């Protein structure tokens, strides 16, 4: 039997208190305790990228860390990318460039791309390809995803219309 812990997490700029098993992963906590189901679970070994979230702005695999380890970090999930019900420029670019099909990989792709664009506002195609190389997509062939990220970088540099 795992030890029960009371923890507090900062997720999408809100503080959440929850009681968890000590060995609960951050991915499971987000989905099961906080009802943030945008974070998907694929391989549960950190290989597919579906569970990628941002921790203090850095993309991480939420299936590889325990929820208790995320205390004190600022966690951003795909739900936290939109502001006041409005899609972010990155999310709009994914929509406009048809960068999703089944959508399973999309949350991990978006959070990975968000980290990339925060660090590098003007990435090359090769840099985008490298950044998303750890995120598996079985539907799109990646071209539309790379196009969307390049488009989002341009939108960010231009600013709001």
In terms of quaternary structure, what is this? Answer: single chain
Beta-strand content bin: 15-25%
> From the helix content, strand content and strand pairing, which structural class follows?
alpha+beta
Name the helicity range: 25-40%
> Which radius of gyration do the C-alpha atoms yield?
16 Å
Q: Total helix count?
A: 5
CATH topology of the largest domain: Ubiquitin-like (UB roll)
Mean pLDDT: 95
What's the CATH H-level superfamily name of the largest domain? Beta-grasp domain
Q: Report strand order across the widest sheet.
A: 2-1-5-3-4
Q: State the CATH architecture of the largest domain.
A: Roll
Shape: globular
Point out poorly predicted stretches: none
Number of strands: 5
How many domains would you count in the coordinates? Answer: 2
Describe the structure.
This protein has 161 residues and is an alpha+beta fold. It folds into 2 domains: 4-80, Roll (Ubiquitin-like (UB roll)), CATH 3.10.20; 89-158, Orthogonal Bundle (DNA polymerase, domain 1). 33% of the residues lie in helices and 17% in strands. The protein has 5 helices and 5 strands, in the order E-E-H-E-E-E-H-H-H-H. The chain has a 5-stranded mixed β-sheet, with helices on both faces. The radius of gyration is 16 Å and the shape is globular. The chain starts with a strand and ends with a helix.
Note the topology.
Layout: E1 4-11, E2 14-21, H1 26-33, E3 52-55, E4 58-61, E5 74-76, H2 89-96, H3 106-119, H4 125-131, H5 143-158
Parallel strand pairs: 1-5
Antiparallel strand pairs: 1-2, 3-4, 3-5
Helix pairs in contact: 2-5
């Amino acid at each position: 039997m795992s030890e029960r812990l009371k923890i507090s997490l900062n997720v999408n700029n809100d503080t959440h208190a929850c009681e968890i098993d000590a060995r609960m992963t951050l991915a499971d906590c987000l989905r099961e305790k906080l009802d943030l189901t945008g974070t998907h679970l694929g391989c549960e070994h950190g290989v597919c990228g579906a569970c990628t979230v941002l921790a203090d702005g850095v993309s991480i695999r939420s299936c590889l860390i325990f929820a208790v380890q995320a205390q004190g970090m600022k966690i951003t999930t795909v739900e936290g990318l939109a502001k006041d019900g409005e899609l972010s420029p990155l999310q709009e670019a994914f929509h406009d460039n048809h960068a999703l099909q089944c959508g399973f990989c999309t949350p991990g792709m978006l959070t990975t791309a968000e980290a990339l664009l925060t660090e590098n506002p003007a990435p090359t195609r090769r840099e985008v390809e490298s950044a998303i190389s750890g995120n598996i997509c079985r539907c799109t062939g990646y071209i539309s995803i790379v196009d969307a990220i390049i488009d989002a970088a341009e939108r960010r540099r231009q600013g709001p219309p």
